[in-house]
Amino acid sequence: MKSDNFTPYSPITFTETPEDRSRSFYELMDKRRSVREFSDKPISKEVIDQLILTASSAPSGAHKQPWTFCAVSNPEIKQKIREAAEKEEYENYHGRMSEDWLEDLKQFGTDWHKSFLTTAPWLIVVFKKAYDLVDGEKEKNYYVNESVGLATGFLLAAIHNAGFVSLTHTPSPLNFLQKILERPSNERPYLLIPVGYPADNAEVPVLERKGLDDMTVFY
Protein backbone atom coordinates (compact mmCIF):
# COMPACT_ATOMS: atom_id res chain seq x y z
CA MET A 1 0.00 0.00 0.00
CA LYS A 2 1.28 3.45 -0.90
CA SER A 3 1.21 6.13 1.74
CA ASP A 4 -0.38 9.52 1.12
CA ASN A 5 3.09 10.99 0.76
CA PHE A 6 3.35 10.44 -3.01
CA THR A 7 3.36 12.83 -5.95
CA PRO A 8 3.13 12.17 -9.71
CA TYR A 9 6.48 11.59 -11.39
CA SER A 10 7.32 14.05 -14.17
CA PRO A 11 9.58 12.30 -16.70
CA ILE A 12 12.34 14.27 -18.40
CA THR A 13 12.05 14.58 -22.15
CA PHE A 14 14.79 15.45 -24.63
CA THR A 15 14.92 16.41 -28.28
CA GLU A 16 17.78 13.99 -28.96
CA THR A 17 17.16 10.27 -29.31
CA PRO A 18 18.08 7.95 -26.43
CA GLU A 19 20.77 6.47 -28.67
CA ASP A 20 22.37 9.88 -29.25
CA ARG A 21 22.17 10.94 -25.62
CA SER A 22 23.57 7.70 -24.28
CA ARG A 23 26.41 7.82 -26.81
CA SER A 24 27.36 11.43 -26.05
CA PHE A 25 27.32 10.81 -22.30
CA TYR A 26 29.51 7.75 -22.72
CA GLU A 27 31.94 9.76 -24.85
CA LEU A 28 32.09 12.41 -22.13
CA MET A 29 32.64 9.95 -19.29
CA ASP A 30 35.13 7.87 -21.25
CA LYS A 31 37.46 10.89 -21.12
CA ARG A 32 37.44 10.83 -17.31
CA ARG A 33 40.83 9.91 -15.83
CA SER A 34 42.29 9.73 -12.37
CA VAL A 35 44.90 12.49 -12.14
CA ARG A 36 47.70 12.88 -9.61
CA GLU A 37 49.19 16.17 -10.79
CA PHE A 38 47.02 19.13 -9.85
CA SER A 39 47.10 22.88 -10.36
CA ASP A 40 46.54 25.12 -7.35
CA LYS A 41 44.13 27.25 -9.40
CA PRO A 42 41.18 28.07 -7.12
CA ILE A 43 37.65 26.72 -7.45
CA SER A 44 34.75 28.61 -5.88
CA LYS A 45 32.81 27.18 -2.96
CA GLU A 46 29.65 27.61 -5.05
CA VAL A 47 30.94 25.01 -7.50
CA ILE A 48 31.80 22.58 -4.69
CA ASP A 49 28.30 23.12 -3.27
CA GLN A 50 26.75 22.05 -6.57
CA LEU A 51 29.02 19.02 -6.93
CA ILE A 52 28.06 17.78 -3.46
CA LEU A 53 24.36 18.44 -4.09
CA THR A 54 24.64 16.32 -7.22
CA ALA A 55 26.26 13.53 -5.22
CA SER A 56 23.45 13.74 -2.68
CA SER A 57 20.88 13.07 -5.40
CA ALA A 58 22.02 9.43 -5.52
CA PRO A 59 19.64 6.72 -4.33
CA SER A 60 20.17 5.28 -0.85
CA GLY A 61 18.77 2.48 1.27
CA ALA A 62 15.39 3.56 2.66
CA HIS A 63 16.38 7.10 1.63
CA LYS A 64 18.54 7.37 4.74
CA GLN A 65 21.29 9.24 2.82
CA PRO A 66 24.01 7.83 5.08
CA TRP A 67 26.80 10.16 4.04
CA THR A 68 28.70 13.27 5.05
CA PHE A 69 30.90 15.21 2.63
CA CYS A 70 33.71 17.17 4.28
CA ALA A 71 35.01 19.79 1.84
CA VAL A 72 38.46 21.02 2.88
CA SER A 73 40.19 24.09 1.45
CA ASN A 74 41.99 25.22 4.63
CA PRO A 75 45.75 24.89 3.93
CA GLU A 76 46.60 23.93 7.51
CA ILE A 77 44.07 21.11 7.56
CA LYS A 78 45.19 19.92 4.13
CA GLN A 79 48.78 19.84 5.42
CA LYS A 80 47.74 17.73 8.41
CA ILE A 81 45.89 15.35 6.11
CA ARG A 82 48.90 15.06 3.81
CA GLU A 83 51.30 14.34 6.66
CA ALA A 84 49.05 11.65 8.10
CA ALA A 85 48.32 10.13 4.69
CA GLU A 86 52.00 10.00 3.75
CA LYS A 87 52.82 8.32 7.06
CA GLU A 88 50.33 5.54 6.31
CA GLU A 89 51.37 5.30 2.67
CA TYR A 90 55.04 5.00 3.61
CA GLU A 91 54.15 1.98 5.73
CA ASN A 92 52.10 0.56 2.87
CA TYR A 93 54.90 0.86 0.33
CA HIS A 94 57.50 -0.46 2.78
CA GLY A 95 55.95 -3.63 4.10
CA ARG A 96 52.15 -3.64 4.22
CA MET A 97 51.55 -4.17 0.51
CA SER A 98 52.26 -7.54 -1.07
CA GLU A 99 54.74 -7.88 -3.92
CA ASP A 100 51.86 -8.55 -6.32
CA TRP A 101 50.14 -5.35 -5.24
CA LEU A 102 53.28 -3.29 -5.65
CA GLU A 103 53.84 -4.83 -9.08
CA ASP A 104 50.29 -3.90 -10.16
CA LEU A 105 50.87 -0.31 -9.03
CA LYS A 106 54.03 0.19 -11.10
CA GLN A 107 52.05 1.20 -14.19
CA PHE A 108 50.79 4.26 -12.30
CA GLY A 109 54.22 5.48 -11.19
CA THR A 110 53.06 6.12 -7.64
CA ASP A 111 54.88 6.10 -4.32
CA TRP A 112 54.19 7.27 -0.78
CA HIS A 113 54.61 10.98 -1.60
CA LYS A 114 51.17 12.64 -1.99
CA SER A 115 51.80 16.28 -2.91
CA PHE A 116 48.38 16.57 -4.54
CA LEU A 117 46.83 16.64 -1.06
CA THR A 118 48.19 20.13 -0.49
CA THR A 119 48.24 21.34 -4.11
CA ALA A 120 44.64 20.64 -5.10
CA PRO A 121 42.38 23.54 -4.05
CA TRP A 122 39.80 21.21 -2.48
CA LEU A 123 39.76 17.84 -0.79
CA ILE A 124 36.37 16.18 -0.48
CA VAL A 125 36.41 13.52 2.21
CA VAL A 126 33.44 11.18 1.97
CA PHE A 127 32.25 9.64 5.23
CA LYS A 128 29.73 6.84 5.56
CA LYS A 129 27.32 6.83 8.48
CA ALA A 130 27.18 3.37 10.02
CA TYR A 131 24.12 4.61 11.86
CA ASP A 132 22.45 7.95 12.54
CA LEU A 133 22.45 9.70 15.90
CA VAL A 134 19.17 11.46 16.69
CA ASP A 135 18.95 13.09 20.11
CA GLY A 136 21.67 10.76 21.28
CA GLU A 137 19.83 7.64 20.11
CA LYS A 138 21.02 5.28 17.40
CA GLU A 139 18.89 4.97 14.25
CA LYS A 140 19.67 2.20 11.78
CA ASN A 141 20.90 2.87 8.24
CA TYR A 142 20.57 0.35 5.43
CA TYR A 143 22.91 -0.67 2.60
CA VAL A 144 25.40 1.92 3.76
CA ASN A 145 28.37 0.88 1.60
CA GLU A 146 26.21 0.54 -1.49
CA SER A 147 24.52 3.91 -0.90
CA VAL A 148 27.77 5.80 -0.31
CA GLY A 149 29.36 4.08 -3.30
CA LEU A 150 26.53 5.30 -5.53
CA ALA A 151 26.83 8.85 -4.17
CA THR A 152 30.57 8.81 -4.78
CA GLY A 153 30.00 7.72 -8.37
CA PHE A 154 27.60 10.63 -8.87
CA LEU A 155 30.22 12.95 -7.35
CA LEU A 156 33.00 11.78 -9.67
CA ALA A 157 30.73 12.20 -12.69
CA ALA A 158 29.75 15.71 -11.56
CA ILE A 159 33.40 16.68 -11.05
CA HIS A 160 34.29 15.50 -14.55
CA ASN A 161 31.24 17.16 -16.09
CA ALA A 162 32.29 20.48 -14.53
CA GLY A 163 35.68 20.29 -16.24
CA PHE A 164 37.78 19.31 -13.22
CA VAL A 165 39.90 16.28 -12.39
CA SER A 166 39.89 14.08 -9.33
CA LEU A 167 41.49 11.06 -7.74
CA THR A 168 39.95 8.37 -5.54
CA HIS A 169 42.65 8.30 -2.89
CA THR A 170 42.47 5.56 -0.26
CA PRO A 171 45.41 5.72 2.14
CA SER A 172 44.85 2.72 4.38
CA PRO A 173 43.90 2.84 7.18
CA LEU A 174 41.79 5.98 6.82
CA ASN A 175 41.04 6.50 10.51
CA PHE A 176 43.25 9.59 10.75
CA LEU A 177 40.66 11.51 8.72
CA GLN A 178 38.03 11.01 11.39
CA LYS A 179 40.41 12.40 14.00
CA ILE A 180 41.72 15.39 12.01
CA LEU A 181 38.23 16.45 10.88
CA GLU A 182 36.73 15.73 14.31
CA ARG A 183 33.89 13.62 12.95
CA PRO A 184 31.48 11.83 15.33
CA SER A 185 31.77 8.15 16.22
CA ASN A 186 29.01 7.04 13.84
CA GLU A 187 30.94 8.25 10.78
CA ARG A 188 33.65 6.25 9.04
CA PRO A 189 36.00 7.66 6.36
CA TYR A 190 35.19 6.15 2.96
CA LEU A 191 37.20 8.06 0.33
CA LEU A 192 39.51 11.04 0.04
CA ILE A 193 39.01 12.88 -3.26
CA PRO A 194 41.24 15.79 -4.35
CA VAL A 195 39.39 18.09 -6.76
CA GLY A 196 40.89 20.72 -9.05
CA TYR A 197 42.29 21.57 -12.44
CA PRO A 198 45.07 19.42 -13.89
CA ALA A 199 48.61 20.77 -13.71
CA ASP A 200 49.90 22.17 -17.01
CA ASN A 201 52.31 19.23 -17.30
CA ALA A 202 49.91 16.57 -16.00
CA GLU A 203 50.28 13.11 -17.48
CA VAL A 204 48.25 9.92 -17.08
CA PRO A 205 49.29 6.33 -17.77
CA VAL A 206 48.28 4.68 -21.03
CA LEU A 207 45.48 2.33 -20.03
CA GLU A 208 42.83 0.40 -21.91
CA ARG A 209 39.36 -0.15 -20.52
CA LYS A 210 37.56 -3.44 -20.94
CA GLY A 211 35.36 -3.67 -24.00
CA LEU A 212 31.63 -4.26 -23.86
CA ASP A 213 31.99 -7.95 -24.74
CA ASP A 214 34.55 -8.44 -21.96
CA MET A 215 32.22 -7.33 -19.18
CA THR A 216 28.66 -7.82 -20.36
CA VAL A 217 26.41 -10.85 -20.76
CA PHE A 218 23.11 -10.33 -22.56
CA TYR A 219 20.20 -12.73 -21.99
Explain what the structure shows:
- With 219 residues, the protein is α+β, with helices and mostly antiparallel strands.
- The chain has one domain (35-199): 3-Layer(aba) Sandwich (NADH Oxidase), CATH 3.40.109.10.
- It is built from eight helices and six strands.
- The protein has helices spanning 18-29, 45-55, 75-96, 99-105, 116-119, 144-161, 175-180, 212-215, and strands spanning 67-72, 122-129, 131-134, 137-140, 165-166, 187-196.
- It has a four-stranded antiparallel sheet with strand order 1-2-6-5. The protein has a two-stranded antiparallel sheet with strand order 3-4.
- β3 (131-134) and β4 (137-140) form a beta hairpin.
- α2 crosses α6 (144-161).
- The chain is globular and about 55 Å long.
- The mean pLDDT is 95.
- Uncertain runs with pLDDT below 50, 5 residues or more? none
Class by SSE composition? alpha+beta
**Assembly level:** single chain
Q: End-to-end span in angstroms? A: 32 Å
CATH architecture: 3-Layer(aba) Sandwich
CATH superfamily: NADH Oxidase
Strand-and-helix sequence, N→C?
A: HHEHHHEEEHEHEH
| CATH hierarchy, class | Alpha Beta
- Tally of strands: 6
Return Rg in Å.
Answer: 20 Å
What's the pLDDT, averaged over the residues?
Answer: 95
Largest sheet: 4 strands, antiparallel
Total tally of structural domains = 1
Strand order of the largest sheet: 1-2-6-5
The 3D shape can be described as: globular
Summed up, the helix count is 8
State which percent range the strand residues make up.
Answer: 15-25%
Helix content: 25-40%
